[in-house]
Amino acid sequence: MSEQDVKKQLRDWVASKSKAGKPVNDDTPLMEQRVITSMQVMDLILFIEKLSGRPVDAGKLKKGVFRDVNTIYENFFHA
Amino acid sequence: MNAIPPDLRDTVKKLHDVSIGDFRNPYAAIDWPEKMDRAQWFTSPRFISLNGTPAYEALTEEKRKELSFFEAVNFYSLNIHGERPLCKGIAERLYRPEHRDVSPYLHHFLAEENNHMIYFATFCEKYAGKIYPDRHLAFPRDFADGEEDFLFFAHTLIFEEIVEFYNVKMSKDPALEPTARAINLLHHRDEARHLVFGRKLTKHLFQAHAPQWTQEVLAGVRENLSNFILSTWREYYNPDVYRDAGLPSPHDLREEAWNDPACVAHRREVSAGLFKYLLENKMLEKEPPLQ
Question: Above 80 in pLDDT, residue B175?
């Protein structure tokens, strides 16, 4: 899957979960603007696992890895 | 907010006394079989997360029993992940001035939660060779006065109310593998007391703090509780379980089960008592959506 395809799927997923109803761009701050809440992170991790085909070790995640779609791509999909 | 109401004080005294009489050695409480025959029910069939879905209907009884084993591993893993922060939070609150009067019971709470993790982890490690990973993350944030304390005990109560529903039913299910039944029974015996305490303390904290909160804080607290309930339920549908049981497309299966009317109805049934409590005490204004 290309970078653009992955980012589009991530944007679509976030938009489908967001209660704010705001448009989601690749640099929209997801947590800072409360587009998604900390309690939706578990679902986000599962979605990343599904897209990447690799498990995510939540215990080793560093602060800021879910900042925006670009950051998620860099941390979980960029080889 | 140091004084606690007389009825909560009486409850703490009674629970403290009963807990002393019901104290047990967690290492001697269960006879652990050396090997586990997985061709048994480890989760009551009607509590398997896929129950009621077309995918479940298509499974053989042998496959359903295999699935019930991994469902039990998930249930026990969720309990471990819920109890770790709970132990941390209780330890941090021991003998704080506002919790001095309830601290004698907090010691039991802490000890019993530790015991539960021993039961759950022993089963998972001994028979499955693993504990399913925790995918829940909490981000630091600022709180209004009393908000963090209230949310800590309210989250604990929500988690325990849901878990207790299953413990009660599965501790009485003669079809369940004896070790699994014993774990549910031992958990239930302690949780029943935790819930009596949790319901009274959570109500007390809300009544003491909510009147001082702004409308914005109060709305945020209610949204937090609704989100927590939803997030707790989402964890019951674990694609790792379906993968380990050999079922295809585990992530899609999770979403299918989550949206299946039979599963939605089940979540409503289990949550009914919890919702009644939260609504009666104005902690929620309306039932949260379970979809």
Answer: yes
How many angstroms separate the CA atoms of B166 and B44, rounded? 9
Q: Which residues of chain B from 119 to 158 reach within 8 Å of chain A, CB to CB?
A: 133-139
In angstroms, what separates the C-alpha of B246 from chain A's closest C-alpha?
16
Q: Do A50 and B251 touch (CB under 8 A)?
A: yes
Q: How many CB atoms lie within 10 A of CB A55?
A: 12
Name the average pLDDT for chain B.
96
ipTM of the complex: 0.88
| Interface contact A38-B138, CB threshold 8 A | yes
**Cα–Cα separations (whole angstroms), residue B126 to A4, A36, B68:** 44, 37, 17
Task: Dump pLDDT digits (tens) for B118-171.
Answer: 999 999 999 999 999 999 888 888 999 999 999 999 999 999 999 999 999 999
Q: Which of B134, B228, B251 sits opposite A39 (nearest CB)?
A: B228
Return the CATH number at B200: 1.10.620.20
d(CA B176, CA B168): 13
Q: B231 and A42 in contact by Cβ < 8 A?
A: yes
Mutation site for B-interface testing, chosen from A9, A38, A61 by largest number of B Cβ within 10 Å: A38
Give the pLDDT confidence score for residue B2 in this predicted structure: 57
| Residues B135, A31: C-beta atoms closer than 8 Å | no
pLDDT at position B60, please?
Answer: 98
pLDDT digit string, tens, across residues A14-44: 999 887 677 899 999 998 888 998 889 999 9
Class of A3-76 per CATH? mainly alpha
Give CA torsion, residues B227, B232, B233, B236, to 10 deg.
150
- B248 at the A interface (CB within 8 A)? no
Question: What confidence tens digit (pLDDT) does each residue in B89-116 have?
Answer: 999 999 999 999 999 999 999 999 999 9
Total structural domains within chain B: 1
Say whether A37 and B137 touch across the interface (CB within 8 A).
no
Q: Does A40 touch chain B (CB under 8 A)?
A: yes
Could you list the residue range(s) of the whole structural domain that residue B196 is in? 6-19+60-131+146-280
